[in-house]
Design goal:
The chain is of the alpha+beta class and about 300 residues long. Helices cover about 35% and strands about 25% of the residues. The protein has 12 helices and 15 strands. The strands form 3 sheets. A 5-stranded antiparallel sheet has the order 1-2-3-4-5, with helices on one face.
């Protein structure tokens, strides 16, 4: 499809995307320059971890260069690496971005107002971002397991755009995690994975579940159902499904709220089993697993 044809369908052309302000877009993503010298703006690289700013954007040329990986180019080149996606996906991302900025009349006047705005989901797709995949590895979770159960989610709060690992809940909302934030889009709900098994394992959060699946991958895993509460406060909402099983393993945090909920559950029914002894001495299953104690 030619650039002219793409433009006629309401999408930006590649030429138009190249003209978008790279420094402005980096700011939308939450990246600000560490130093500015004439037309050169220096950043801690958005594409990798570093302590000394070596990612340069020349405002006059509207082009970037990352000295740490010896790569550079225009905004399209940056986006394909940053989002780990195709040029076609870049066109869609920036067409959505441009549509928002043309149609939005009033922007929040303060950063506080932006934070209080609801989360708007813009796009979901397979987990491909190197930044997110690196974060998954830092939590000791398998790429393949994360890709099986989670999505890459682009979302917006006020006038800023972000992306995160997303776990879909039963009501269509997403739990959103990246190295900087822990959020959820509305509606908030539990996540149920039902394969028709007679037993069920229950987790407070996304990374406890993903850690468990990564661990069990190396074992002769028996079929079981799963519930991720996404908040310990949603335990009562999960009870009808949980108590339809003959055995329920609880992998809750070993903090006051988790211990209290486990105790309450065991008082309700003998079906409930406290499985948190596996990670005794740690706050939760993921912390234990990431520490290497499981190996």
């Amino acid at each position: 499809m030619s650039e002219r044809e793409r433009g006629s369908r309401g999408l930006l052309t590649l030429a138009e995307i190249r003209e978008l302000d790279l420094i402005g877009y980096l700011s939308e993503l939450g990246f600000e320059p560490v130093k500015v010298h004439s037309a050169d703006h220096w950043y801690l690289s958005p594409l990798r971890d570093e302590r000394t700013a070596s990612f340069k954007v020349n405002r006059r040329l509207n082009r970037w260069y990352d000295h740490g990986i010896s790569l550079g180019g225009n905004l399209i080149d940056f986006a394909t690496i940053f989002y780990q996606c195709s040029v076609g996906e870049v066109i869609k991302i920036f067409s959505d971005y441009w549509s928002f900025h043309k149609l939005k009349i009033l922007l929040p006047s303060t950063e506080k107002a932006a934070v209080n705005c609801p989360i708007q989901i813009l796009y979901t797709g397979p987990l491909t971002s190197k930044t997110l995949l690196d974060y998954i590895v830092s939590r000791s979770v398998s790429y393949d397991i994360a890709r099986q159960y989670c999505r890459q989610v682009n979302y917006q709060i006020g006038y800023r755009r972000y992306f995160a690992i997303g776990l879909l809940n039963n009501s269509g909302g997403y739990e959103l995690r990246n190295s900087y934030s822990k959020l959820a889009s509305s509606p908030k709900d539990i996540t149920t994975i039902n394969v028709g098994a007679p037993t069920v394992s229950v987790f407070e959060g996304m990374f406890d579940f993903l850690s468990y699946k990564t661990l069990m991958r190396k074992m002769a895993e028996q079929p079981e159902n799963y519930v991720i509460l996404n908040s310990i406060s949603l335990f009562d909402r999960a009870r009808p499904f949980l108590e339809s099983h003959y055995h329920i393993d609880l992998y809750f945090d070993r903090d006051a709220a988790g211990i209290r909920c486990t105790s309450t559950a065991k008082d309700i029914s003998e079906k409930y089993n406290d499985a948190s002894g596996m990670y005794g001495g740690y706050k939760d299953l993921n912390e234990w697993f990431a520490s290497g104690a499981a190996r």
